[in-house]
Design goal:
The protein has 64 residues and is an all-alpha fold. The protein has two helices and no strands. It has a domain of 35 residues.
């Protein structure tokens, strides 16, 4: 399983999502003082989640 690492800022495309306020607070606390944006943190979390699904064989045939 891939270890989560706080990422550097990658090139991105703007998307808008809704998140629970408590989760937003936790992410902001985790990146405080780091060279990382909220968006970069969330993108890396999604990448790790997708990789975990791929390793576990849970994403089905629709995602490759």
């Amino acid at each position: 399983m891939k270890k989560f690492q706080i990422p550097k800022i990658p090139p991105t495309t703007s998307k808008s999502i809704r998140m629970p306020n408590d989760l937003i607070d936790e992410v902001e606390e985790a990146i405080k003082g780091k060279d990382c944006t909220f968006t970069a943190f969330v993108v890396e979390a999604v990448r790790v989640a997708l990789e975990n699904l791929k390793e576990d064989g849970e994403q089905g045939e629709s995602y490759k």
